[in-house]
Amino acid sequence: VSYSTYSEQLAKDVQLLLLEFGVISRLCRYAKGEFKVVITNRRDARLFARNVGFLGATSWDPPDAVPGGPAYLDDEGDPWVLVTCSTDYQGDEALAATAIEALRDEPVRVLVTIADAAHAARLPSAANARVERFVAHGPVLRRAAAVVCHGGMGIVQKALTASVPVVAVPYGRDQPEVGRRLVECGAGRVV
After folding, report:
1. Are 136 and 62 in contact, with CB atoms under 8 Å apart?
2. For 35, phi and psi rounded to 5 degrees?
3. How many angstroms separate the CA atoms of 191 and 184, rounded?
4. For the chain, how big is the Rg over CA atoms in Å?
5. pLDDT tens per residue, the chain (191 residues)?
6. CA triplet 78, 80, 149: central angle to 5 degrees?
């Protein structure tokens, strides 16, 4: 069980909050500035599950999202594939570039959301691809045939809730474990 952030103070606050529930965690700092609060043993993982708990899937979208999604989502055409990078920058813009190249000649429309990778992304263009910094996922998932993503918990939960298959390319954090569970339940693939 882990929590990642780029805020050292938030990481320390989460660690103190866990301690109030009797859960001992470790604070790790990574070279790229990421802080991770990690529960490393079964005793504390069980305490976390019992005293704090895990949440299920969420369908929340940011309040500034266009109701119903952008109008172009309803244009006639091939099915949509949502390709999305992490909202917590991790250098995964290569995922977006590879997906655009791989899907350029396929009978799909590709919507790429790159979030904080916008500053670093040099993406190829394709006639069937549209790149946005942000589009709320809910409206897209209602129209999507598939999701290609980094394997983050949020997008995977939203896709599964919408019954959309997922291709995950885990980069780190909890993503390899999310990918393993995705494959285990038969709802997607990891590459």
Report:
1. yes
2. -110, 140
3. 14
4. 18
5. 888 887 899 999 999 999 999 999 999 998 778 888 999 888 988 888 888 876 666 667 776 567 788 999 999 999 999 999 988 888 888 999 999 999 999 999 999 999 877 776 789 999 999 999 889 999 999 999 999 999 998 899 999 989 999 999 999 888 998 998 899 989 999 99
6. 150
